[in-house]
Give the backbone structure.
Amino acid sequence: MTGPQANRETETEGLAALSHRFGSGAVTPPQRARFVRELFDRIAPRYDLMNDLMSLGLHRLWKRTMVNAAADAMMDLEGDIIDLAGGTGDIAALLRARLPDQSITIADTSPGMLAVARKRLGDTVAYVETPAEALPFASQQAALVTLAFGLRNMTDPARVLAEVARVLKPGGCLLLLEFSRASAWFNPAYQLHSRFVIPALGAAVAGDRRAYRYLIESIRQFPDAASISAELVAAGFGAIAVRRFMFGVAALHSARKL
Ligand SMILES: C[S@@+](CC[C@H](N)C(=O)[O-])C[C@H]1O[C@@H](n2cnc3c(N)ncnc32)[C@H](O)[C@@H]1O
């Protein structure tokens, strides 16, 4: 993160605080898990279109950068690839095109999102409906885990990072793409877009203003890139590199399991 952050409406309290919040409301962790699953089931049919509209297509560039990093990492690695919180399968589709011979599994907790992924990718990848907090994979099974725009939605993000560390081989790579903190000069414009444009698009295109209000609140509550790097170290990762996109609106963390 560069410079002080202005106009910050909600101070983040680290990953642990996310378990008890759903947007601006207080919830129990099981309630949160259910609300998040139901939300993504509801918006799944319009999810990809909404992503293009909200980000003016930029999410595609960020995901391509992540998949390029994945292809580079896989040059030195052997093992499975898991696209965690893989949603509608756009990242798995890019991975499949770059790495045609690799085993790729999309893991996600929302049957609605997985149904869209199945339509997109058929039997070219595998699908697992699971919470990321308890992955049904053997220890040290995977060479690479991609996790894009999923961690902030998870009920127990610290446990998810520990699970990712468990399923990765030593030296295996985690690529974590998430919203982050915009630079102070850009933040006012970004906040206007978040507060007015995104909920309006959510209402008009997805028919679900509340869902998109939650998504914006979850972005505000998510810790900055330095805090995420510290969480990665605590979960057993090293060689952490961070790349910021769009003046810090999103960040790609690359890390290796020690
Ligand atoms: C914002 S979408 C991101 C989808 C896709 N990775 C992308 O970048 O477009 C978040 C995804 O995380 C999934 N998700 C939320 N909580 C989860 C959990 N605890 N375990 C696994 N997946 C979860 C949701 O179902 C949803 O598909």
User: Anything to note?
Assistant: The chain has one domain: 15-257.
